[in-house]
Specification:
The structure is a single chain. This protein is mostly helical. It has helices at about 5-25, 30-70, 85-90, 90-110, and strands spanning about 75, 80-85. Helix 1 runs antiparallel to helix 2 (about 30-70). The radius of gyration is 28 Å and the shape is elongated. It starts with a helix and ends with a helix.
Length: about 110
């Protein structure tokens, strides 16, 4: 499931818990109030457990990304030169390189340097 699905499910459980608390507050029979509060606690517990599971998944994913960043990665360029993966994957460096190439081509066409 996606992060959004997890978030929506947690939110739904919290909303359900609030609704059952409201119904308990408005119920006139004490046994019905207890039952509604019990159901509300169950929904709150579901929301808490989903939230804990989501946090654990996110922490695991962040740790995985940290480990991947720490691992030494070297790429071999077509010319045989070694370049770091971080430099090749940086979108800003790529954009700057494209802008430099575009400027050179433009200068050649207009005859300016």
């Amino acid at each position: 499931m996606s992060v959004l699905d997890d978030f929506l499910r947690i939110r739904l459980y919290r909303t359900q818990a609030e609704e059952f608390h409201l119904m308990a507050d408005n119920a006139s029979v004490s046994s019905v109030q207890r039952r509604y509060r019990s159901i509300a606690r169950h929904y709150s517990e579901l929301a808490d457990r989903e939230e804990q599971a989501d946090k654990a998944k996110m922490a695991e994913r962040l740790e995985q990304l940290r480990l991947e960043r720490r691992a030494p990665v070297a790429q071999v360029a077509p010319s045989g030169l070694h370049r770091s993966k971080a430099a090749n994957d940086n979108p800003l460096i790529g954009l700057l390189r494209l802008m430099q190439i575009y400027q050179r081509v433009r200068n050649r066409r207009t005859g300016t340097h």
